[in-house]
Amino acid sequence: EGKVSEGGLNVTLTIRLLMHGKVKHFLSPKGETVKKMREESGARINISEGTCPERIVTITGPTDAIFKAFSMIALKFEEDINASMTNSTVTSKPPVTLRLVVPASQCGSLIGKGGSKIKEIRESTGAQVQVAGDMLPNSTERAVTISGTPDAIIQCVKQICVVMLESPPKGATIPYRPKPASAPIIFAGGQAFTIQGQYAIPHPDLTKLHQLAMQHPPFTPLGQTTPGFPGLDATTPTSSHELTIPNDVSGPIVRVSFSSLTPLQQ
Predict the structure, then answer these.
(1) Which residue ranges does the record assign to the K Homology domain (predicted)?
(2) CA-based angle 167:118:146, to the nearest 5?
(3) Which residue pairs, CB below 8 angstroms and at least 24 apart, start in 197-205?
């Protein structure tokens, strides 16, 4: 259990960041950016793998190392904001924004009774802090968004760390894992294809699912039957139906609309 001493926090802690797009700062050529952050902060910094637009950046180490890592991250983002404004007509400078991923069981302590704790953090650090009302998909974690100057963000992270150490998570935590973005799906000639760049890649699993759906469709319009193709009226080219593809086949649910379908040739 963590304790707060006069010198500050003296324990090892893990903080998770949710990044969308900005992860490119860590995935610079040869990993030089994240390597420098690891060496100078002393924290362990790991980035989730995959082709998802979202990534989880996990920062682990003594709290002083975590604060140093967050300071470097916030300063890097501010540099990018300044660079983007060089030739811009925008006059107001946007704040640095980071999103933490926090177990939902700890969010109550972070908010405090009647919002007292989060109000105190906002007023004492000058940072804007928002705790998401809903949990992230397929997890028991919630996003905590922090916005402000790099100094305000690091002061805010320090106070959040104190809350997390004083109020450990209750029960098991199901961590949030970003899912890959669904590739567009088309059906042609009785086969299913996923679109990757300029290419259509055959998808045998979806083809089988499509064929099964056409043979035993769940959507039979009242009063309409077509021999060998129940539920679809081939004489009505403007009819439209939907097929829901489950998660275990294509990741996130994809809804595909069928128009002017031609019966499959057996």
Answers:
(1) 11-78, 94-165
(2) 100
(3) 205/249, 205/250
**Tokens 């290419």 sit on residue:** 199
Q: Give me the number of domains the chain comprises.
A: 1
CA distances from 193 to 188, 204, 224, 250 (A): 8, 8, 29, 12
CATH number reported for the structural domain that contains residue 95 in this entry:
3.30.310.210
Q: What is the pLDDT of residues 109-158, one digit of tens each?
A: 999 999 999 999 999 999 999 999 999 999 999 999 999 999 999 999 99
Range of the domain at 53: 12-166
Residue 226 lies in a domain: no
Cβ 147 vs Cβ 128: under 8 Å:
yes
Q: What is the pLDDT of residues 58-105, one digit of tens each?
A: 999 999 999 999 999 999 889 888 888 887 777 788 899 999 999 999
Closest by alpha carbon to 25, among 5, 11, 4, 45? 45
For CA atoms 213, 218, 222, 228, give the dihedral sign: positive
**59 assigned to some structural domain:** yes
